[in-house]
Structures are given as structure tokens and as C-alpha cells.
């Protein structure tokens, strides 16, 4: 195992007195409008030099488990929205050609609406926040906003909402981001850092007055979230066999280590490597959390297929038990590679991609999983691979996008935008950002036009994938 705590380069430190005052930061934000007028964010054009989106996806696949790639392509081909979820790299490539203000934040890199949700805070409160950080990196704040806005447009198209309804949803989402950022600009720094959305405050973050059906759906989701815990995962993913807890097989999505049939794999050696991953990851936890982890023992391991765009990255489900068979802890060790943003904004300061994910998550989330950590595994699949580790389920709940009516999707977009603005306000110059955005709807309308144009391009890219699968160029496995 390699040392996992050394960064490639350290973050620069600033003298406290060197920080610009509020007036200077406002001037900086307004001056950025000269570099990128707010109306310029409507721009999206393609040319003959646009990289082939499928070639970009295939390039990603070169470092992934080849036997799982047909599942990835099959999932992405299911709809234009599914394609968009898996196409963070093609969109980053396109966004790199769009205007930018020059203001930088800790960017999510994949801030589409399905990457937000509810989960438990360490204090055992149900909070709403961004919940996917595989692509996080310091970068342009606009890219996150445009990806979120475009995802709202595509999801609304997927529901056959009218153009008027879609426009209202996207404009409301971007306006909510702008209003939230202006609100954070007026707050003390610590108040911004402590701000969070929980189950009691989420309804107040939207200007939409939800009907009874939507309110009841939200209440059901919060109740259900509390059942999505480690004990619930034990009932879903494992069973007791002859007094021993074992993970259930659901191939190809969940394959216990004992059932991997590739003759080239030494299962005993692989199990020892994964156990070393767990041991080395432990060193990245705070001291009190290492004490907590030490009260559990690893009893079973399974390979797990996760997500849409992530399919093909190595992911392991780890079942640990505490005092007895009814005291489980499920961890997930997920492979982390370079962010899709790195090609366009520069390499991460961290030499370990798992550390990049963990640090970015801790910066952006109001509350993070107490078991969040990272590790590098040498010799896994004959290569050094980085992983981050977290709980598999801890009161996790996602919005039912397919069940949303226009008012519900608009409200959801506003809440997502608030959470994104809060993350950006924590890590960027919120005062300059607020000054750049201003009080008018110029930015909101421009991003709405961008989202419409990019949704058209996404549909063309999706059809290109469907045709490539039909022609046999790209292998795909549907329905998994």
C-alpha cells in the first residue's frame, strides 16, 4: 500500500491581512461581467472540431472493467436523460469552450438533479445536499450551474412537459441559485459554513406552493429514508447462512467475492488486498472514528455495479459486523480516477484521486459521512488504483423524478440550486459571485437558453449512441 496522505502540492496559504475587503470583492465580481457578460452564458455552438462524445466515453472505458462496460452503455442508451447522467466528460469538454467569469469554486463537476438527495448527518438529522463528488475539483462555478439547469430541462422533456413549463422550471432553478448566493453574500462566514437544509427547512427554500399530493410524497420520502440504514441493508443485501452473514448474489450487479469465476483471479489474494484496503483506509479517519471502526470485523465482500456513468469503475461492498449478526455496518469502496474536469482546468493538487473526492466532499457538503476516507491499492488488477470509502446506506433517499409534476420539479430544482449555491459560497468568493450575478434575471434567462440548446445536443449525442449500439460498434446490455 502506498502512502495516502501526501498531496501532490499543498494549498497556498494567504496572510489574513491580504484578503480583499468587501468593496474590492464586489468590484471584482462586477468587473468579471466585462470578461463574460451575463447574457453570454446563453452561448452554445458546435463546430467540426468538437470531440466525438462517444470517443470520449470509450476513452474513459480504457481504465474500467471491460466486462461491465456493456452495462454502462445499455443504461446510458435507455433515454436522453440517462445518457446525460453518464456524459459528464463530453459536457465538460463542451463547457470548456463557453464563456467564463474567471471566478473559481470547489465545483461538483456532475451537478445534475439526480446527484442531490437526503441522508443522515452525524448528529442523526435528515439533511438535503449534493451527494455525488466523483468529479469534484476547483473549477468554474458556471459549469455546475449549467449542468444542473440542463438536467432540469432534459428531465422535464423526459416527462413531456410543455415548453412553457420547462422554461419556468429552468429559470426558477437558476434564479434560486442567484438569490441564494446573494443571500449568502450578506451572511457572516461562519453562518455560511453552518448553513444546511434539513427536512424541516427544505419546504421554505422554494417559492412554489406545493399541493397536498407533493407534500405527502415528501413526507413519505423522509419517513422511508430512515429505513435505508445499515440494518435495512442487511435484510436487503445479505442473509444468515448456518449462523454466518453472507452477501446475496444478484449478478452481474452484485457478485460476492466467492462467486467471481474469472480463472485469472486469485480469490484468496484478492480478498487479502481488499482487507489491506480497509486497514490502510482506516488511517485516513479521525482518531475517534478509527476506534469506532475497530469495533467491527469484515465478514464478506462483493463486487457492486453502481450508477450510470460510474459503471465499470471498481466498487466493492463490504459487510462488517459489530457485537452480533444484528449489528451490521455496510461500507462501499469505490474506485476514483481523475476528475473529468482535470483535462480542462488542470490536475488536482492531490496525488490520490480518492483523497480528491473526500476533500471536495467535505468542502462542499454541510455534513459528511463519518466513515468517509480514501486509500490507494497497489497491485489490484495489476495496477495502482485509488478508492474512496463511505457507508453504503445511511438514511439515503433520492427524489422520484419520474413521479414529479411541473410544480414539484420546479420546487426540487430550487432546493437543489440552494444547496449548490451554499456549497459554492463555502468554497469561493461569495461576495464577488453575488455581485457578478446581480439582481436582474439576465443570468437566469441566458442559462435557460443554454440549457435548451444543450438539451438538443444531448438528444443528438444520445441518438448517436443508440445507432452505434445498433451497428455493433459499441456493445451494450439493456435492462441491467
Concise summary:
The chain is α+β, with helices and mostly antiparallel strands.
What does the model show?
- Residues 12-41 have a biased composition (Basic and acidic residues).
- By secondary structure, the protein is an alpha+beta fold.
- The protein folds into 2 domains: 21-113 and 136-211 and 403-471, no CATH class; 230-391, no CATH class.
- The chain is 44% helix and 15% strand.
- The protein has 17 helices and 13 strands.
- The chain has helices at 22-35, 53-61, 69-76, 80-86, 88-95, 141-158, 163-185, 189-194, 212-225, 230-237, 267-281, 287-293, 342-345, 353-364, 406-427, 430-437, 442-471, and strands at 104-107, 116-120, 126-130, 137-140, 197-198, 238-241, 244-247, 254-256, 297-304, 315-321, 328-336, 373-380, 383-391.
- A 6-stranded antiparallel sheet has the order 8-9-10-11-13-12. A 3-stranded antiparallel sheet has the order 2-3-5.
- The longest helix is centred in the last third of the chain and has 30 residues, at 442-471.
- The radius of gyration is 22 Å and the shape is globular.
Amino acid at each position: 500500500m502506498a502512502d495516502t496522505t501526501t498531496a501532490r502540492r499543498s494549498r497556498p496559504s494567504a496572510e489574513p491581512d491580504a484578503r480583499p475587503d468587501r468593496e474590492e470583492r464586489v468590484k471584482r465580481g462586477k468587473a468579471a461581467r466585462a470578461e463574460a457578460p451575463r447574457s453570454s452564458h446563453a452561448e452554445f455552438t458546435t463546430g467540426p472540431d468538437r470531440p466525438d462524445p462517444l470517443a470520449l466515453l470509450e476513452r474513459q472505458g480504457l481504465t474500467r472493467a471491460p466486462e461491465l462496460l456493456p452495462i454502462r452503455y445499455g443504461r446510458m442508451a435507455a433515454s436522453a436523460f440517462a445518457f446525460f447522467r453518464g456524459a459528464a466528460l463530453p459536457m465538460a469538454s463542451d463547457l470548456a469552450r463557453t464563456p467564463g467569469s474567471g471566478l473559481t469554486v470547489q465545483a461538483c463537476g456532475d451537478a445534475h438533479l439526480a446527484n442531490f438527495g437526503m441522508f443522515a448527518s452525524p448528529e442523526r438529522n435528515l439533511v438535503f445536499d449534493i451527494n455525488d463528488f466523483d468529479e469534484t475539483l476547483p473549477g468554474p462555478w458556471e459549469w455546475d450551474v449549467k449542468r444542473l439547469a440542463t438536467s432540469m430541462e432534459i428531465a422535464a422533456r423526459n416527462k413531456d412537459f410543455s415548453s412553457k413549463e420547462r422554461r419556468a422550471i429552468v429559470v426558477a432553478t437558476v434564479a434560486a441559485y442567484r438569490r441564494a448566493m446573494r443571500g449568502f453574500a450578506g451572511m457572516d462566514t461562519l453562518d455560511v459554513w453552518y448553513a444546511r437544509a434539513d427536512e424541516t427547512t427544505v419546504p421554505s427554500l422554494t417559492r412554489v406552493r406545493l399541493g397536498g399530493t407533493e407534500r405527502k410524497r415528501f413526507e413519505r420520502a423522509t419517513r422511508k429514508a430512515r429505513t435505508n440504514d445499515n440494518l435495512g441493508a442487511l435484510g436487503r443485501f445479505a442473509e444468515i447462512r448456518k449462523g454466518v452473514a453472507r452477501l446475496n448474489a444478484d449478478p452481474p450487479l452484485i457478485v460476492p467475492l466467492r462467486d467471481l469465476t474469472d480463472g485469472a483471479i486469485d480469490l484468496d489474494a484478492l480478498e487479502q488486498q481488499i482487507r489491506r484496503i480497509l486497514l490502510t483506509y482506516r488511517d485516513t479517519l479521525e482518531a475517534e472514528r478509527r476506534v469506532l471502526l475497530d469495533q467491527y470485523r469484515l465478514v464478506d465482500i462483493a463486487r457492486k455495479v453502481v450508477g450510470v456513468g460510474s459503471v465499470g469503475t471498481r466498487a466493492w461492498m463490504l459487510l462488517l459486523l459489530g457485537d452480533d449478526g444484528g449489528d451490521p455496518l455496510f461500507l462501499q469502496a469505490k474506485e476514483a480516477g481523475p476528475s473529468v474536469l482535470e483535462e480542462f482546468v488542470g490536475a488536482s493538487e492531490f496525488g490520490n484521486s480518492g483523497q480528491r473526492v473526500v476533500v471536495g466532499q467535505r468542502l462542499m457538503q454541510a455534513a459528511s459521512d463519518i466513515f468517509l476516507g480514501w486509500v490507494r491499492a497497489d497491485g489490484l488488477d495489476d495496477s495502482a488504483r485509488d478508492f474512496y470509502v463511505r457507508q453504503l446506506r445511511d438514511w439515503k433517499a433520492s427524489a422520484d423524478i419520474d413521479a414529479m409534476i411541473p410544480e414539484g420539479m420546479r420546487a426540487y430544482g430550487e432546493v437543489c440550486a440552494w444547496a449548490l449555491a451554499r456549497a459554492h459560497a463555502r468554497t469561493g468568493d461569495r461576495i464577488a459571485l453575488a455581485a457578478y450575478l446581480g439582481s436582474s434575471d439576465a443570468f437566469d434567462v441566458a442559462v435557460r437558453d443554454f440549457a435548451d440548446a444543450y438539451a438538443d445536443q444531448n438528444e443528438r449525442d444520445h441518438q448517436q449512441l443508440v445507432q452505434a449500439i445498433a451497428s455493433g460498434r459499441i456493445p451494450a446490455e439493456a435492462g441491467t
